[in-house]
């Protein structure tokens, strides 16, 4: 099993059932850490549930409120997103810039799950593999991975109402998704950092959708992150460190001086896509951009946080050693993680896919010189939704919408009823035989306009003609 440890023995991502802190109590990596003896259900009934489904916990920052969006603006955004989702392939092909801008503004909560499914290409994968998840779900799974997954379930967002109850529906679905992935990719198995990723997805979509989005994140967005050895995450750590030199030379110099390896502070950030680090409003906004634009968003967020924490001489003086620096990076002040601030800083930071790929090649050459070839074989990284769609162009059938309930307003119902009544009266008048002419000056003229009784009936008219009067006419 690949294992990455920090100085207090906190992290153990690949395949470990549990990891111990210095005092021997079981602890989860991240901000929702609980001991095995704790029971999150004890507090769920005592605190008010917020709009995200949380009842409390370390990701609740007192005094740090999410951005309020006026209801009128939210409804307008919902209408725009519905329009995009109904013609997704056309929007991605011709108006991708507009899709990206709307993701940066934030996807409406009511459509976030469906949008993530489409952005990642999970919708296409699901349609092209009908019944695959059910097949995996029905299999027992490898006992080794099943045991480890079961031990990890209670550690995932225990202060969220969906996962607070041991053995509840949320934990059951989380188990199903993670077990299915170990069967889908037996060569990778299970990695602890996949659990919070899957849990975030389950908060927004059914288990089958969450499974396919998890597959896309693991295989397209963050390939190799959850493989044995954690080589991909180590490589990206070196890329982050190299990019930091350009973003903040002060922070870069400080980390270099104290020999603080990137994997010590960025592993949880990247492998969990900041779901364990940021306030929840910021998590969702970062994910909206990440699933649209790709891993560059994760790099940008990491660089913004490092610059905010270590970007000036005054700040680095406050943490003179390695230990102080690590403690600082573990306790980032809320103002740097606030939704509006973090999103704006992330958008405006000048780090592109080309910058990341250039550094990737440089760090890959350095790795091969010092460590030899990488042991994992993962597919190339896709930089966002457009790259995923270009690699696997979907058909219209793959993007079809599932049936939805359409609720008409009373005015629309009355208007439709009046319209149908008017059409019915018009058809009655049309099919009645005309009265005989009083005088025929030109016998041949009657042949130029055939009687309605002799005209073939349209399929529409035949279906709609159900009154007794109409039946008498046709008889």
Describe the model.
The structure is a single chain. α8 (about 145-150) runs antiparallel to α9, α9 (about 170-185) crosses α11 (about 205-220) and α10 (about 195-200) crosses α11 (about 205-220). This protein has about 475 residues and is an all-alpha fold. The protein is built from 25 helices and no strands. Residues about 1-10, about 15-45, about 405-410 and about 435-475 have low confidence and may be disordered. It has helices spanning about 40-45, 70-85, 90-95, 95-105, 110-120, 120-130, 130-140, 145-150, 170-185, 195-200, 205-220, 230-245, 250-255, 265-270, 280-295, 295-310, 315, 320-330, 335, 340-350, 355-370, 385-390, 410-430, 460-465, 470-475.
Strand content: under 5%
Which word captures the global form?
globular
SS class: mainly alpha
Q: Overall mean pLDDT score?
A: 80
Largest sheet, described in full?
none
User: What string, H for helix and E for strand, traces the elements in order?
Assistant: HHHHHHHHHHHHHHHHHHHHHHHHH
Please mark out the parts with pLDDT under 50 across 5 or more consecutive residues, or reply none.
Answer: 1-11, 14-45, 404-409, 436-475
Determine the N-to-C terminus distance. Answer: 83 Å
Helix percent band: 55-70%
The radius of gyration over CA amounts to 30 Å
Overall number of strands: 0
Enumerate how many helices there are, as a single number. 25
Layout: helices, strands, pairs:
Elements: H1 41-44, H2 71-86, H3 88-94, H4 96-105, H5 112-119, H6 122-128, H7 132-138, H8 143-152, H9 169-184, H10 194-202, H11 207-221, H12 231-247, H13 249-257, H14 263-271, H15 280-293, H16 296-310, H17 313-317, H18 322-330, H19 334-337, H20 339-348, H21 353-371, H22 385-391, H23 410-431, H24 459-464, H25 468-474
């Amino acid at each position: 099993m690949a294992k990455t440890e920090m100085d207090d023995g906190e992290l153990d991502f690949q395949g470990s059932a549990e990891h111990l802190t210095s005092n021997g109590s079981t602890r989860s990596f991240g901000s929702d850490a609980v001991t095995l003896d704790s029971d999150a259900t004890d507090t769920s009934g005592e605190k008010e549930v917020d709009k995200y489904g949380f009842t409390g916990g370390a990701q609740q920052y007192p005094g740090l409120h999410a951005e309020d969006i006026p209801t009128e603006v939210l409804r307008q955004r919902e209408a725009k997103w519905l329009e995009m989702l109904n013609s997704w392939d056309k929007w991605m092909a011709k108006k991708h810039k507009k899709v990206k801008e709307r993701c940066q503004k934030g996807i409406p909560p009511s459509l976030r799950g469906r949008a993530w499914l489409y952005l990642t290409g999970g919708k296409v994968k699901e349609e092209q593999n009908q019944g695959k998840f059910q097949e995996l779900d029905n299999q027992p799974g490898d006992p080794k991975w099943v045991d480890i997954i079961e031990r990890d379930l209670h550690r995932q967002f225990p202060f969220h109402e969906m996962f607070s109850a041991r053995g509840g529906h949320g934990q059951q679905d989380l188990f199903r998704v993670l077990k299915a992935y170990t069967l889908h990719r037996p060569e990778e198995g299970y990695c602890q950092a996949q659990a919070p990723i899957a849990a975030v997805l389950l908060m927004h979509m059914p288990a089958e959708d969450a499974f396919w989005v998890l597959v896309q994140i693991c295989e397209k967005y963050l390939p190799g992150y959850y493989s044995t050895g954690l080589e991909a995450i180590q490589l990206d750590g070196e890329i982050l460190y190299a990019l930091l030199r350009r973003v903040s030379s002060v922070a870069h110099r400080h980390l270099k001086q104290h020999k603080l390896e990137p994997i010590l502070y960025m592993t949880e950030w990247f492998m969990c896509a900041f779901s364990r680090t940021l306030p929840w409003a910021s998590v969702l906004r970062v994910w909206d951009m990440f699933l649209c634009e790709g891993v560059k968003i994760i790099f940008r967020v990491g660089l913004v946080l490092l610059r905010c924490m270590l970007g000036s001489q005054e700040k680095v003086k406050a943490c003179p050693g390695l230990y102080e620096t690590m403690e600082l990076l573990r306790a980032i002040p809320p103002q740097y993680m606030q939704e509006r601030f973090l999103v704006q800083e992330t958008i405006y930071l000048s780090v592109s896919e080309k910058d990341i790929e250039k550094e990737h090649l440089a760090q890959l050459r350095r790795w091969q010189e010092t460590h030899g070839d990488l042991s994992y074989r993962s597919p190339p990284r896709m930089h966002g939704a457009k790259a995923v769609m270009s690699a696997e162009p979907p058909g219209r059938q793959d993007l079809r919408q599932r049936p939805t309930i359409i609720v008409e307003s009373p005015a629309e119902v009355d208007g439709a009823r009046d319209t149908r009544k008017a059409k019915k009266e018009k058809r009655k008048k049309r099919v009645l035989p005309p009265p005989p002419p009083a005088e025929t000056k030109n016998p041949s003229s009657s042949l130029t306009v055939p009687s309605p009784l002799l005209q073939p009936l349209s399929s529409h008219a035949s279906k709609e003609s159900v009154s007794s009067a109409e039946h008498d006419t046709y008889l």
